[in-house]
Design goal:
13 strands; 9-stranded mixed beta sheet; globular; two-stranded antiparallel ribbon; 6 helices; alpha/beta
């Protein structure tokens, strides 16, 4: 069996993690204060998935990578100026709300329809990548739903490593409790892989790759179809930012056991 894969990475943008996020309630429900003004980045979990996808495609000639995004295309255009320089991919854009207050089912529905409309996508070779969590809200449910909607039932979450055998089989390491891994082997694609951090660093910028990607990204953004996620009855009764607490002491030559005991006492308080 040929080891060519059609790899679809689901991901979107999130506010830069260094920004102060303040939830506010408006006429359409909760949102972030000045959300459209906040600098955005590619969701870090989706970023890990994208870099793993590009590395897999590079190792298996003939493979292709698509990045499927649901988000406001004006913000996506800004973020892609940076992401495009990392690895080769084609982009599919659904112009819609990428807020963390959207319904996971509605988001999954838009993504699955966008994937079904990709010209030339061979679903027998499909590897559906994404983050097993999201920096926007972290429902951890979207990838499973997208897989089910596309009829892909081999699903793995918390993936840190994928190894492809000569026969096309997939050996997948998933995180489980206690810092341990579960290793599974499937015959091959199709499969859903929700990535944890993977094993790859963020690639350096490559201007040549960036120029090649942007030649495809700009037309894709211009042709983006609306991604309506307003059909849900989901509502939030209350939203608040987690309380932050920081107490710093500078102490020299403290025994390791004493440091560990203080941490346990602090966590137990």
């Amino acid at each position: 069996m040929s080891n060519e894969f059609h790899i679809v990475v689901c991901g979107s943008i999130v506010p830069d993690p260094l920004q102060k996020l303040e939830p506010v309630q408006g006429p359409g429900g909760y949102a972030l204060k000045n959300e459209m003004m906040l600098p955005a980045v590619l969701d870090p979990w989706a970023g890990h998935a994208l870099y793993e996808a590009a590395n897999l495609a590079k190792s298996h000639p003939g493979s292709k990578v698509w990045l499927v995004c649901l988000g406001p295309k004006a913000k996506l255009q800004q973020v892609m100026m940076n992401v495009a320089q990392k690895v080769p991919f084609e982009i599919v854009v659904a112009d819609g709300n990428a807020s963390g207050f959207t319904d996971a089912f509605e988001t999954a529905s838009v993504l699955s329809r966008s994937i079904e409309a990709i010209p030339g996508l061979d679903r027998d070779r499909l590897l559906l990548f994404g983050g097993w969590q999201s920096a926007s809200r972290g429902s951890g449910a979207v990838m499973q739903m997208v897989g089910e909607m596309l009829g892909v039932t081999e699903q793995f979450q918390g993936v840190d490593k994928l190894t492809v055998g000569d026969d096309g089989s997939l050996e997948i390491m998933e995180r489980i409790e206690g810092g341990c891994y579960q290793t599974s082997v499937v015959d091959g694609a199709p499969a859903v892989l929700g990535w944890a951090t993977g094993e790859l660093p963020e690639p350096p910028n490559n201007p040549q790759v960036g120029m090649q990607n942007m030649q495809k990204i700009m037309p894709a953004l211009a042709q983006a179809k609306p991604g309506d996620v307003s059909g849900s009855s989901l509502s939030f009764e209350a939203v608040q930012v987690p309380a932050q607490r920081r107490e710093t002491r500078i102490v020299k030559d403290t025994p390791v056991d004493e440091i560990a005991r203080e941490i346990v006492d602090w966590l137990s308080a």
